[in-house]
Write a structure and sequence with these properties.
single chain; 199 residues; alpha/beta; Rossmann fold; seven-stranded parallel sheet; 42% helix; globular; binds NADP nicotinamide-adenine-dinucleotide phosphate
């Protein structure tokens, strides 16, 4: 039974990942304000404290990461800073700190999103961050392998999110189906890959 830490495991995608993994694995659910353990990924020392507390695991999944959506001309320095500190450097630091705590043969799977390759109006700050995480992941995978695999899952719109926004959920992928991509990243041999999940 593998030990798997799911950061963002209390969120929409993360809880679907936890549900998919829980029957067969020892899953540690990490949130920001909820979950078995709390972390603020925008703080490297908080990440360090999390791994010191939880100890060695076989796999880490990150389904956390905030970035601001809005028209480019309206985005402030602070808006950019949120995405850079949280979704970008937060996930980069999960790898920089976490790799010391992951057993040989393990993996770390980060979350980006379709906006890295298919931007839309208002997505500039998020597209920047998603593309940055994917670039980092490819470089990190080269250096940390073969004992540690590093991948990204890049979801398109998630059906439940579209529903919350009052949009047609059938244009998206149910969170439970997106979760299968994380399980594939953990159990397969992928390394340095962006696993895309589109509707
Ligand atoms: N939903 C979509 O349609 C979609 C599509 C593409 C990509 N994504 C990406 O997938 C990721 C997860 O999305 P989601 O819809 O599942 O989000 P969500 O439901 O809002 O869940 C966010 C999760 O991250 C945790 N979190 C929030 N701030 C944090 C921090 N500073 N440090 C550590 N953990 C933090 C939350 O913990 P608490 O519950 O304790 O606050 C929660 O577990 C995001 O990066 C998002 O951009 C989502």
């Amino acid at each position: 039974m593998s030990r798997i830490m799911v950061v963002g495991g209390t969120g929409l995608l993360g809880s679907a990942v936890v549900e998919a993994l829980q029957p067969d694995h020892d899953v540690t659910v990490v949130g920001h304000s909820s979950g078995e353990h709390q972390v603020d990924i925008a703080s490297k020392s908080s990440i360090q404290q999390l791994f010191d507390t939880v100890g060695e695991v076989d796999h880490v999944v990150s389904a956390a990461g905030e970035a601001k959506f809005g028209p480019l001309v309206d985005l402030t320095d602070d808006d950019f800073e949120v995405g850079l500190r949280n979704k970008l450097m937060g996930q980069v630091n999960l790898v920089r700190v976490g790799h010391e705590y992951i057993a040989d043969g393990g993996s770390i799977t980060l979350t980006t999103g379709v906006l890295s390759r298919q931007p839309m109006e208002g997505s500039a700050a998020i597209s920047l961050v998603n593309a940055g995480v994917e670039g980092f992941m490819r470089g990190a995978a080269l250096e940390l392998g073969p004992d540690l695999r590093v991948n990204c899952v890049s979801p398109g719109w998630v059906a439940e999110t579209l529903e919350q926004m009052g949009r047609d959920p059938s244009d998206g992928v149910p969170a439970a189906d997106v979760a299968k991509a994380y399980v594939q990243s953990l159990n397969g041999s992928a390394n340095g890959e962006v696993i895309e999940v589109f509707g």
